[in-house]
């Protein structure tokens, strides 16, 4: 183990090799994406580090609806209703 791995910024992943088990060190995943209105956790948005998010297709990164990945479905529904009613 290198000294830089002796903290909780890295998670420990036990990997099976041909004849033994070994520990690999990986960076922790970021927190879940949050709704910008209510602050609740967003579904359908992966928790991955930026280098993985870059290589992911856009459709895999957020729900395919207006404000997908920004607002949760409850807040979006409420927002649309209030906009339609104010017309
Ligand atoms: Zn919300």
N-to-C series of helices and strands: EEHH
Derived structural class: alpha+beta
Mean pLDDT: 94
Give the cofactors and ligands.
Answer: zinc ion
Cα end-to-end separation: 63 Å
Based on CA inertia axes, which overall geometry fits? elongated
Q: What's the domain count?
A: 1
Give the number of helices: 2
Hey, roughly how much beta strand do the residues contain? Answer: 15-25%
Radius of gyration from CA coordinates: 19 Å
User: Main sheet?
Assistant: 2 strands, antiparallel
Number of separate strands? 2
- Write out the strand line-up for the largest beta sheet, numbering strands in chain order: 1-2
Helicity level: 10-25%
Describe what you observe in this structure.
This protein has 87 residues and is an alpha+beta fold. The chain has one domain (3-86). The chain has 2 helices and 2 strands, in the order ββαα. The protein has helices at 50-55, 73-86, and strands spanning 10-16, 21-27. Strands 1-2 form a two-stranded antiparallel ribbon. The longest helix has 14 residues, at 73-86. It is elongated, with a radius of gyration of 19 Å. The chain starts with 9 loop residues before the first strand and ends with a helix. The protein binds zinc ion (ZN). Zinc ion (ZN) binds next to α2.
């Amino acid at each position: 183990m290198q000294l830089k791995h002796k903290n909780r910024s890295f998670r420990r992943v036990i990997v099976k090799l041909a004849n033994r088990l070994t520990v690999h060190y990986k960076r922790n995943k970021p927190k879940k994406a949050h709704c910008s209105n209510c602050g609740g956790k967003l579904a359908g948005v992966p928790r991955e580090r930026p280098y993985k998010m870059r290589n992911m297709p856009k459709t895999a990164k957020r729900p395919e609806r207006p404000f997908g990945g920004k607002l949760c479905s409850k807040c979006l529904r409420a927002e649309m209703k209030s906009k339609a009613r104010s017309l």
